[in-house]
Design goal:
8 strands; 13 helices; Arginase, Chain A
C-alpha cells in the first residue's frame, strides 16, 4: 500500500490574518517542522500544494465572489457593498495580503488530494478544513470551502458514497448548505452545543443527509468515545463509504480559547485511526484550532497516526525546540511543560453528560441506518 501523502505550503509560514486575529498563530508550519524534526516526514511523502485556479473554485463558489476576493487582495480594501454582500473586510474575515492566495492554496491542496486518491490511499492536508465558507460569501475565518470542493471532486470521479465527518468544535454550516439533500453524501458532525454558528441541531438532518450530534460544554474523552463508537463508526459501517473526508479541527481540546469542550488529542487520533481503516480513500483536513501548541501537537500526531509511527513519551530536543520557539500574543504566559515536552495529552476521561445517551438514542431511533 502506498505511504500516506502530506500536502503543505510555505504560504502558511509567511501569511497571517493580522496580529489581533485568532489565526495570527502559526499552525501548518509547526506541523511540518515537528514532523520533520521527528523524522516522520520524508521528501517522498511531502507535496507542495498548488493554488486552485478561479475556474476550479467555481465548482462551488460564484464567479462574482471569487472576483471580489481577488480584487480585495489586490487593492487591500473592500467597499461597503462588497463587505455587506461577501462578508469580506470584517473582524472575522479581514483583508490581508494573501487573502485569496492562501485559501486558494488550501483549496488546491484538497482538490489535488482528491485526484491523488482516485486509486486509493490516504492524504493529509492540514491547511484545509475551512468548513464555514459559503458559495457567495466568507464565514468564520473561511474564505473558501475546500472540504466542499474535495467532496465534489470525488463525486465527479463517479463515487456514489462519500462520507464527510467533522469533529471540529464548530458546526460545518458551509458543508451542510452545499450538500443539503445530496443522496451521495453523508455528513456526520460532532460540535459544541450552543456555539457559533448555532447550526447543526440534533434535529437538523440537512435534507436527510446529515447526522448532527451537539456535545455539551465540558465533554471529555469518555463522552467523545461514546459518540465515536455509537454514532460515527456504526453509521460509516452501514454506509460503506468509497471515500471519507475527515475535518480534524483542533479546537475541541481543553486548552483552546474559542471553545469549551474538554477533549485530549487522543480523541482525535483515535478517530483518525478508526476511519483510516473504513474506506479505500481517506482525506484528512485541518480546521479550527487557536492555541499554537495544542494545534501543532495534535496535527503532528495525526500525521504520526496515519503512518503508524510511535509517539514517544517525551520529545527529542529538535522537536521540543520547535514548540519552545512558538509565541502567542493573545496568551503571553509560558505554556506548561507538557505542551513543550510531549505530543500526547494525558487522557481526559470522566463523567459523561447526562443528555448524551438520550441524544444518541434519539439519533438511532430516527436514522435506523446503523441499527
Amino acid at each position: 500500500m502506498q505511504a500516506p501523502l502530506f500536502i503543505g505550503s510555505e504560504i502558511y509560514r509567511g501569511s497571517s490574518y493580522g496580529a489581533l486575529h485568532p489565526l495570527s498563530i502559526p499552525r501548518v508550519p509547526t506541523v511540518i517542522d515537528l514532523s520533520r524534526a521527528m523524522g516522520w516526514l520524508t521528501q517522498a511523502q511531502y507535496i507542495n500544494s498548488p493554488r486552485a485556479k478561479p475556474a476550479a473554485l467555481t465548482a462551488f463558489h460564484t464567479p462574482r465572489y471569487i472576483a471580489a476576493l481577488q480584487a480585495a487582495e489586490t487593492t487591500g480594501a473592500v467597499d461597503a457593498d462588497t463587505r455587506a454582500r461577501h462578508h469580506l473586510g470584517t473582524l472575522s474575515n479581514p483583508v490581508f495580503g494573501e487573502m485569496f492566495r492562501r485559501p486558494a492554496t488550501a483549496a488546491g491542496g484538497s482538490l489535488l488530494a482528491a485526484t491523488l486518491l482516485a486509486q486509493g490511499g490516504a492524504v493529509y492536508n492540514p491547511g484545509g478544513g475551512t468548513h464555514h465558507g459559503m458559495a457567495d460569501h466568507a464565514g468564520g475565518f473561511c474564505y473558501l470551502n475546500d472540504p466542499v470542493l474535495a467532496v465534489k471532486a470525488f463525486l465527479a470521479q463517479g463515487l456514489t458514497r462519500v462520507a464527510y465527518v467533522d469533529i471540529d468544535a464548530h458546526h460545518c454550516d458551509g458543508v451542510a448548505a452545499a450538500f443539503h439533500g445530496e443522496p451521495r453524501v453523508l455528513m456526520i458532525s460532532t460540535h459544541e452545543a450552543r456555539r457559533w454558528p448555532f447550526t447543526g441541531a440534533l434535529e437538523d438532518r440537512a435534507g436527510g443527509q446529515a447526522i448532527n450530534l451537539p456535545l455539551a460544554r465540558g465533554t471529555n474523552d469518555s463522552g467523545f468515545a461514546m459518540a465515536l463508537n455509537e454514532v460515527i463508526l456504526p453509521a460509516l459501517q452501514a454506509m460503506r463509504p468509497e471515500a471519507i473526508v475527515l475535518q480534524c479541527g483542533a479546537d475541541a481540546v481543553a486548552e483552546d480559547p474559542l471553545a469549551r469542550l474538554e477533549l485530549s488529542n487522543n480523541a482525535h487520533w483515535a478517530t483518525v485511526a478508526a476511519l483510516h481503516a473504513m474506506s479505500p480513500r481517506f482525506l484528512v483536513l485541518g480546521g479550527g484550532g487557536y492555541n499554537p501548541w495544542t494545534v501543532g501537537r495534535l496535527w503532528a500526531g495525526v500525521w504520526a497516526t496515519l503512518n503508524g509511527h510511535e509517539i514517544p513519551a517525551r520529545l527529542p530536543e529538535p522537536a521540543r525546540a520547535v514548540l519552545a520557539a512558538l509565541c502567542w500574543t493573545r496568551q503571553p504566559k509560558v505554556p506548561g511543560d507538557h505542551l513543550l515536552d510531549t505530543l500526547r495529552d494525558t487522557p481526559r476521561d470522566g463523567a459523561i453528560d447526562q443528555d448524551l445517551r438520550p441524544q444518541i438514542a434519539r439519533l438511532k431511533a430516527r436514522q435506523k441506518m446503523w441499527v
